């Protein structure tokens, strides 16, 4: 039996940085301390005017290639999760295949999900590998939400940052047990209106895409859904909180994460928060946090890591990975 | 929760001075009642009062007193 496993992760953040100091200058009634205290974010990276998701994705993938984790010619599937693609068409993953010099025999697919996207992408990668359709999946999550954000909308501008993460998911027939899974998924489209970019789509095609977020509704959705999702995940994986070495939730904002951690009673030392320097990077937030945790020595080989994603859709999911 | 204690929590999460809130204040007229404060209030209601306050209920609240009364009512309803 071939099992899929997360082999390595790397990430790229755009060079331009917007600090809390910059925001406090624009919004004088918001102090730097208040922004940091309520969001846990000190700065966020913002893509340049001509810098798109594919550019961030290529930079993240190049880091994996330069580290010797994989070679382009070995990749047989490119999976890109983004809600800010370069174009409506063609598929941005096709552009990535070309830019990264991945063989033309490789499959390439975009998937459109936000903060739960990393979980769903791992599910797809696992399915492709364990059914023999692919051996090495380059799974990239890349977002430039800043391009959707009205500069006057301080509440979302404070939270979101741009970034991309590249994950190599590789199949191996030498493993005793699965290294990704089980999965819990969930969807509630009744919340679609609460985090939405209407403009630019076919239903509302006036110019100038603009992100709308109903923060209180999103917060309540999270409070309702994440504890239930986590409970279901623990039951399905037949684990207890004590059996998990590290919990990595979607890095929404520190305040929300601390509240959730407290609510679901996860010890602080097992709960990774690492968004101070780049904010909420949507589907890239979990893999960026994983790479940070790895670099900080917080993940040992064989560690059981629980991943939980939740947000726009509404959509949520959880899975378990064994670090290799 | 007694009203005084409730007001103290609200003052903390709105980053205003102790004793500044009495109850009749109109929320929409207070710059401190911003998006960050609203989310902090929902977290406080969830953690300290055991109330998942629907946003539709929150939107009906005009004053600080309305917040207290709504939170207390929902808490009693369990």
What is the share of helical residues of chain A? Answer: 25-40%
- The secondary structure category of chain A is alpha/beta
How are the strands ordered across the major sheet of chain A?
Answer: 1-7-6-4-5
H/E series of chain A, N to C? EEHHEHEHEHEHEEEEHEHHEE
- End-to-end C-alpha gap of chain B: 14 Å
Structure description:
The complex is a heterodimer of chains A (324) and B (78). Chain A is built from nine helices and 13 strands. Chain A has a five-stranded mixed sheet with strand order 1-7-6-4-5, with helices on both faces. A four-stranded mixed sheet of chain A has the order 8-13-12-11, with helices on both faces. Chain A has a two-stranded antiparallel sheet with strand order 2-3. With 324 residues, chain A is α/β, with parallel strands linked by helices. In chain A, α1 (20-26) crosses α2 (32-39) and α7 (215-237) packs across α8. Chain A has helices at residues 20-26, 32-39, 53-66, 92-99, 117-130, 154-159, 215-237, 254-264, 285-295, and strands spanning 3-12, 17-19, 43-45, 77-81, 107-111, 136-143, 163-172, 180-187, 195-197, 211-213, 246-249, 304-311, 315-322. In chain A, β12 (304-311) and β13 (315-322) form a beta hairpin. The model of chain A has no long low-confidence stretch (mean pLDDT 94). By secondary structure, chain B is an all-alpha fold. Chain B has helices spanning 3-14, 35-48, 55-60, 64-77. Chain B is globular. The mean pLDDT of chain B is 92. The interface between A and B is medium-sized, with 19 and 17 residues.
């Amino acid at each position: 039996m071939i099992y899929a496993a997360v082999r390595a992760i790397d990430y790229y953040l755009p060079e331009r940085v917007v600090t809390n100091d910059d925001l406090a200058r624009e919004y004088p009634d918001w102090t730097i301390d208040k922004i940091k205290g309520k969001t846990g974010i000190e700065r966020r990276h913002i893509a340049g005017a001509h810098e798109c998701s594919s550019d961030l994705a290529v930079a993240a993938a190049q880091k994996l290639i330069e580290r010797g984790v994989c070679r382009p010619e070995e990749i047989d599937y490119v999976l890109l999760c983004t809600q800010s693609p370069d174009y409506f068409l063609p598929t941005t993953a096709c552009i990535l295949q070309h830019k990264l010099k991945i063989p033309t025999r490789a499959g390439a697919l975009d998937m459109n999900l936000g903060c739960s996207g990393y979980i769903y992408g791992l599910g797809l990668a696992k399915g492709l590998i364990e059914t023999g359709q692919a051996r090495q999946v380059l799974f990239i999550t890349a977002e430039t939400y800043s391009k959707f954000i009205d500069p006057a909308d301080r509440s979302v501008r404070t939270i979101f940052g741009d970034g991309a993460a590249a994950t190599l998911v590789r199949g191996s027939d030498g493993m005793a047990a699965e290294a990704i899974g089980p999965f819990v998924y969930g969807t509630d489209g009744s919340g679609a209106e609460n985090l939405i970019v209407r403009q630019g789509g076919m239903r509302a095609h006036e110019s100038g895409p603009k992100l709308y977020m109903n923060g209180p509704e999103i917060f309540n959705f999270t409070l309702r859904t994440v504890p239930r999702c986590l409970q279901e995940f623990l039951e399905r994986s037949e684990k207890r909180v004590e059996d998990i070495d590290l919990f990595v939730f979607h890095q929404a904002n520190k305040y929300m994460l601390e509240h959730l951690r407290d609510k679901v009673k996860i010890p602080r030392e097992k709960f990774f928060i690492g968004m101070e320097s780049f904010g909420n990077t949507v589907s890239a937030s979990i893999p960026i946090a994983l790479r940070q945790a790895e670099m900080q020595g917080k993940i040992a080989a064989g560690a059981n890591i629980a991943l939980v994603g939740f947000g726009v859709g509404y959509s949520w999911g959880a899975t378990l990975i064994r670090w290799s | 929760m007694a009203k005084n204690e409730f007001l103290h929590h609200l003052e903390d999460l709105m980053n205003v001075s102790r004793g500044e809130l009495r109850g009749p204040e109109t929320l929409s007229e207070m710059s401190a009642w911003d998006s960050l404060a609203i989310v902090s209030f929902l977290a406080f209601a969830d953690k300290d009062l055991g109330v998942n306050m629907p946003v539709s209920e929150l939107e009906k609240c005009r004053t600080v007193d309305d917040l207290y009364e709504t939170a207390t009512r929902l808490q009693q309803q369990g």
